[in-house]
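#struct-help
A.M.: can someone run this one for me? Single chain, 195 residues.
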Amino acid sequence: PMGANMWEQARIMQGCPAPGSELTEDYNPLEAGLYHAVSLAKGCYIGQETVAKVHNLGAGKQQLWGLYASKACQCGDAVTSADGAKLGTVTSATTKPDGGHFALAYLKCKIKGKEVGLAPGLEVAVAGEPATLAALPYATREFLPQDLPSAKDEKKEAAVEDEDAAAAAKAAKMKAMQERLAAYQAQMAAAKDKK
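D.P.: on it. Structure tokens below:
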């Protein structure tokens, strides 16, 4: 059996995001490394358009990373780059079975428009103490092929959009014709009344 403390330690070491810590309104599923839990090929779920937009534009502002810390850290501790720029904040922390320290943190992908170059082994600091970035076993940063819209689906969507555009153009043309007809009929009625 495993107690709650061991379960939490295992969760953090695997990089599995938890509600209230890594899963909040401040972060989207792609930033949390949950590509494997989201599909762009399935339709109509809450947040689908936002997730698709973030993916298509490469607009993720931050990513969930693991940190091997030299000292114990706490939720809310600042994570800074080698030059002291703030990268993010610790969201979960634990002490490993071997006595080492490990944490999860959301880290910015860019600072002042420049890529940070987040990668395993990158030296950072947590609350001023040395730390190293670690890849997370649970996190995925790419969609599985079946979770991306297929070319066939994209063609269908394009065809539907083309049909909608054609229908809208046809409706606008019909409305313009009806307005011209009504104006002509009004003009003819006015001419008839004058006689």
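A.M.: thanks! The first helix runs from residue 4 to 14.
D.P.: also worth noting: The radius of gyration is 28 Å.
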